[in-house]
Structure formats: C-alpha cells, structure tokens
Specification:
Helix content is 21%, strand content 34%. It has a five-stranded antiparallel β-sheet with strand order 1-2-3-4-7. It has 178 residues and is an alpha+beta fold.
Length: 178
Amino acid sequence: MKCGVRKIFYRFLLLGALILSLLVVSGMLNIPAAQAAIRQLEEAPGQMVYQSRQTIKDNRGNGWQVIAFQRIRPDGKTSFSLRLVGFPGVGAIDRSQPLTLTNSLGNSLTVPDASANIFTNAAAPEPNVAQYDLQPLLGELQPEIPLKLIIPMKDAPAVSLSVSPSLVQEWQTVASYK
C-alpha cells in the first residue's frame, strides 16, 4: 500500500515539474524583471526632487551609489544632476578632473565637477562623493546604448562603472518630470 502511494506521489510530482517547465518555455509564466522606483520628494514648499538610485559595482568590485535627480524649484527652474557616492574605502575622487561618459560606440562626453555646494563643510568635503550637472548632456544620451562612467581618482587609476541602457532610460524618465 505504501509503495502505491509513493508511486502516485512521484507521478504527480513529475507531472507538476513537466507542466511548470512547459509554462516557462512557452512564456506563459512571465516573471517581470525588477525595476527601480523613481522617488519623488518635496524638499521645500514648491520644490520637488525626482530621483533614481542604483548601486553599481565598479571595475574593481567596489559598490557605488549612482543617484540621478531632477530638482524643480518654485520658480520653475530645473536642474538635472548625477551624484556618485563610493562606499567607504573606494578612495578619493579627483574633482579637478571631469567625469567621462563613454558609450559602447566609442563616443565620449565629459562633465566638469559640480560638487561645490553639496557639502555642509566645504573645507572638508567627503572624498568619496562627487556631483555632476548632466542637464546640458541629456539630449546626447542615447537610452538604447550602454554607458561607461569613468571616475577620476586621486592617487589611483580611474574607476569605471557600467551603466545599462535601462538605467539611462530611467534617468531620462526622471529628467522628463515637470
């Protein structure tokens, strides 16, 4: 009797695995890819910030927080910035050098540092944080082409971050809020 129940159980288990495999292969069981949420916050009355945050590993395996954000001031003026935050121990960013954005076609754009106003103590800025104004480059970013961000470092070779086309699309979505 126990042997018969065991056979029936294994047959149902095999049938379930077969059905699940067929569903996956046929695409009926469509599991959506994870997407980052675009955050919205009101910094001050009438001043909105929309942002995208991602953690990306550099070519050395260190994590970086990549934050693209648009700020809309009460007077309607907008800015679009990219803030890079290296996790502790990544080294010091060389803010005297520009950030370089290179796409997979070999085209490069450079962006000067715009970090001057983000630190509460300007005399001792955090060495692993930098900010760049991407507003002038938005029209040149092609969302279907991956990017590589080349971050200049003090006393070390530059590090690079690979940015997927979906993240570039997310940045453009953030930049389009009005």
